[in-house]
C-alpha cells in the first residue's frame, strides 16, 4: 500500500467517526523478492506484496485495537468500515485503561529513501558467479518495506526504505560449513567479493582435521555475527524501563550495583541509521539516537507510552515491548582486516547458536559454537575446532575481559520473515576477548 492510499483510507475513516471517538491507524507493508539457493543454483524464487492495517479506536479511557489484511483497493474501505463497527461494539465492554497514552500533538513526518538495490537479475547473477562450483546454500531477500501512522487528529507519518539480505553458507560436509551474511542498503561488488573470498579461506581450513579443545578460558575473537546472538538475548527486556523498574533486566547489577562494562563499549538505539521507522504505533516520534550504554556505564532505557504514564516519565518513542529495533555498538580501534594477527593465539568464533541465559540476574549467558570455529596460532588458522559450549557473564565478555573492538561495524539485518520481513537491525564491530570461558 502506498502513502496516498493509506492517507485516503484514514481520512475516509475519520469522516465516519462520531462523538469523542479518536482513531489511530498504523500500516506495515512490503514488496519483497525471495530466492533460495542450494548447490550454488537457484532452487526457488518468489515475491510477496502485502500490507497490514492496524486500527485503534479510543473513547475517553477505553480503547480497542484490531488488524486488517489489505487487498483489492475497492474492498479496503469496506474492510475498514467493518473493523470500525466491531471496535465500537467492543468498547462499552472494556474497562478504563489508566495507562493509556497517545500523541495528541500533530507531529507529522515523511522519510522515503530511494532504492539503491541492484535488479533481481543482476544480484542473482553475481551470486551464481560467486558460487562457482561450491555448494552454496542460502536465501536472498530484497525489496522495499514501508511503515505508516495516521490519526483522526491530522497527524501523518510515513517511512519507506529498501534493503537486501543475503544469508548464505558454503557447505563442506557433516557439520563443517562457512556461514556468511551480506546485507545493507546498496550492493557493493568489492565488499561482496571480500566476503566470498573469506568464506572460501574458511572452507579450505575446514577441510583440515578438526581438533577437540579442552574446557577452560581461551582468548577469543567474536565476529559481529557471533555478537549478534548475545545482543539478541540482551535485547529481550534488558534495555526496557519496565524491566528496570521491576528488577527483571539482565543488567540489574549496573542499576543496583557498581558493575560496569568496558570503557570502550557504547551502545545506542540508532534509529537514524536503522531500518525501523522513526515513529511508533501511538504516534510518538523516536529521536535519532538514544544512548543506552555510554563508555561502559548505564545511560538510559527505552520508554513506551504506557510505561511513561505508569512511571511518570517522558516516553522516547519505544514500542509497547520496549525492545530495541536499531541497536548500534560503537566501533573500536582493532583493524578489521587484521583480526587474526590481533588474536595471535586463540579461538576464532564465527557463529554462535542455542544462546540463552544460564543466570539472568548475573547476566550470565551460554551457547554453542557453530559453523566455522578455528584454532589460531601466531595469527594463522591451524585447524577447525569441534563444537564448544561457552558460559560466561556479559560483564566479563564485554567488561573486564574485553581487549578491544574492531574499527568497522558491520550492518546485520534480521533475516526473520515469519509473517512479514523484520525491520530490526544491528550495527556491530567484532570483539576480542582476553578470556572467554568454555565448559564443554
Task: Provide structural commentary.
With 440 residues, the chain is an alpha+beta fold. The chain folds into 2 domains: 3-205, PmbA/TldD fold (2-Layer Sandwich), CATH 3.30.2290.10; 208-438, no CATH class. Helices cover 23% and strands 39% of the residues. The protein is built from 10 helices and 20 strands. The chain has helices at 3-15, 73-90, 120-131, 189-206, 224-234, 241-245, 252-256, 305-311, 339-343, 394-400, and strands spanning 22-38, 41-59, 62-69, 109-112, 135-151, 156-173, 176-184, 216-222, 267-269, 290-294, 297-298, 326-329, 346-359, 364-377, 380-384, 389-393, 402-405, 410-413, 425-428, 431-438. Strands 1, 2, 3, 4, 5, 6 and 7 form a 7-stranded mixed sheet that branches. Strands 8, 13, 14, 15, 16, 17 and 20 form a 7-stranded mixed sheet that branches. A hairpin with a 2-residue loop joins β1 and β2 (41-59). 42% of the residues are buried.
Amino acid at each position: 500500500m502506498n502513502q496516498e492510499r493509506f492517507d485516503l483510507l484514514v481520512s475516509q475513516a475519520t469522516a465516519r467517526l462520531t462523538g469523542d471517538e479518536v482513531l489511530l491507524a498504523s500500516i506495515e507493508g512490503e514488496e519483497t523478492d525471495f530466492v533460495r539457493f542450494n548447490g550454488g543454483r537457484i532452487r526457488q524464487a518468489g515475491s510477496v506484496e502485502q500490507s497490514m492495517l492496524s486500527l485503534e479506536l479510543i473513547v475517553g479511557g477505553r480503547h480497542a485495537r484490531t488488524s486488517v489484511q489489505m487487498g483489492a483497493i475497492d474492498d479496503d474501505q469496506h474492510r475498514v468500515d467493518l473493523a470500525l463497527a466491531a471496535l465500537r461494539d467492543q468498547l462499552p465492554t472494556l474497562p478504563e485503561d489508566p495507562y493509556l497514552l497517545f500523541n495528541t500533538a500533530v507531529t507529522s513526518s515523511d522519510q522515503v529513501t530511494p532504492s539503491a538495490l541492484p535488479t533481481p537479475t543482476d544480484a542473482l547473477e553475481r551470486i551464481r558467479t560467486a558460487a562457482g562450483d561450491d555448494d552454496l546454500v542460502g536465501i536472498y531477500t530484497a525489496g522495499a518495506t514501508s511503515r505508516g501512522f495516521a490519526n483522526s487528529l491530522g497527524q501523518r507519518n510515513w517511512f519507506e526504505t529498501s534493503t537486501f539480505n543475503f544469508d548464505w553458507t558454503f557447505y563442506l560436509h557433516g557439520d563443517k560449513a562457512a556461514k556468511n551474511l551480506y546485507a545493507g542498503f546498496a550492493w557493493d561488488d568489492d565488499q561482496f567479493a571480500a566476503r566470498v573470498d573469506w568464506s572460501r579461506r574458511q572452507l579450505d581450513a575446514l577441510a583440515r582435521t578438526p581438533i577437540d579443545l579442552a574446557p577452560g578460558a581461551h582468548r577469543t575473537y567474536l565476529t559481529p555475527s557471533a555478537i549478534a546472538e548475545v545482543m539478541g538475548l540482551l535485547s529481550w527486556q534488558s534495555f526496557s524501563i519496565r524491566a528496570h523498574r521491576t528488577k527483571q533486566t539482565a543488567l540489574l547489577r549496573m542499576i543496583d550495583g557498581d558493575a560496569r562494562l568496558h570503557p570502550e563499549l557504547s551502545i545506542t538505539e540508532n534509529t537514524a541509521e536503522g531500518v525501523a521507522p522513526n515513529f511508533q504505533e501511538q504516534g510518538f516520534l523516536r529521536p535519532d539516537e538514544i544512548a543506552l550504554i555510554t563508555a561502559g556505564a548505564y545511560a538510559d532505557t527505552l520508554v513506551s507510552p504506557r510505561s511513561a504514564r505508569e512511571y511518570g516519565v517522558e516516553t522516547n518513542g519505544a514500542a509497547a515491548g520496549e525492545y530495541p529495533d536499531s541497536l548500534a555498538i560503537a566501533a573500536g580501534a582493532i583493524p578489521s582486516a587484521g583480526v587474526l594477527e590481533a588474536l595471535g593465539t586463540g579461538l576464532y568464533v564465527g557463529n554462535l547458536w542455542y544462546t540463552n541465559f544460564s543466570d539472568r540476574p548475573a547476566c550470565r549467558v551460554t551457547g554453542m559454537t557453530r559453523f566455522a570455529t578455528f584454532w589460531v596460532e601466531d595469527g594463522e588458522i591451524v585447524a577447525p575446532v569441534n563444537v564448544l559450549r561457552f558460559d560466561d557473564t556479559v560483564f566479563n565478555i564485554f567488561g573486564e575481559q574485553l581487549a578491544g573492538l574492531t574499527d568497522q561495524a558491520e550492518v546485520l539485518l534480521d533475516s526473520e520473515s515469519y509473517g512479514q520481513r523484520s525491520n530490526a537491525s544491528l550495527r556491530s564491530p567484532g570483539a576480542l576477548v582476553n578470556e572467554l570461558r568454555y565448559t564443554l
